[in-house]
Write a structure and sequence with these properties.
single chain, 6 helices, mainly alpha
Length: 155
């Protein structure tokens, strides 16, 4: 159960991170690239300290050259995601941005799980899980377009 609580807290953190990075970009004259750079630098520094404190950092550094290049793509993807969040949040709003991001994460995770891609454990997608995705998509549509729909119908 604690893992679910931690995952939920991580989701809360992503929203807070997006908000803070948008504010940082505003403070830097609207420069989302530099804001993302400083954000990633602070994160990398924090992780570096933690890795040093728990030991084994040098062993890991030595093993990096033997890893497939694609396995390092997570950092690039994370940087692109953070950059897009900083750029998109003021344009489409936090709710729309994170709602779309979450649905994108759910869809890609279903595909990765179903086929066991990139070394993930294979967990075939069931009709019930697909139904859950449909519910999420309907919820996102209501969240994104609900105000427009309700405005068309007098109360």
């Amino acid at each position: 159960m604690i893992y679910y609580v931690i995952a939920f807290a991580a989701g809360l953190g992503i929203t807070l991170q997006t908000t803070l990075n948008s504010q940082l970009a505003k403070g830097l004259g609207g420069d989302p690239v530099t804001a993302a750079l400083f954000s990633f630098t602070a994160g990398a520094f924090s992780l570096g300290i933690y890795a040093l404190l728990r030991g084994g950092l040098m062993t890991s550094l030595v093993a990096i050259p033997s890893q497939p290049l694609w396995s390092l793509a997570g950092g690039l993807i994370g940087a692109c995601a953070l950059f897009s969040y900083v750029v998109l949040a003021p344009k489409i709003g936090f709710s729309a941005l994170l709602g779309l991001a979450i649905v994108g994460q759910l869809l890609s995770s279903q595909i990765i799980d179903h086929f066991g891609l990139l070394g993930a454990m294979r967990r075939p997608v069931s009709l019930l899980r697909l139904g859950g995705m449909v519910v999420m998509l309907v919820g996102l549509a209501v969240m994104l377009f609900g105000d427009r729909l309700s405005a068309r119908f007098p109360q």
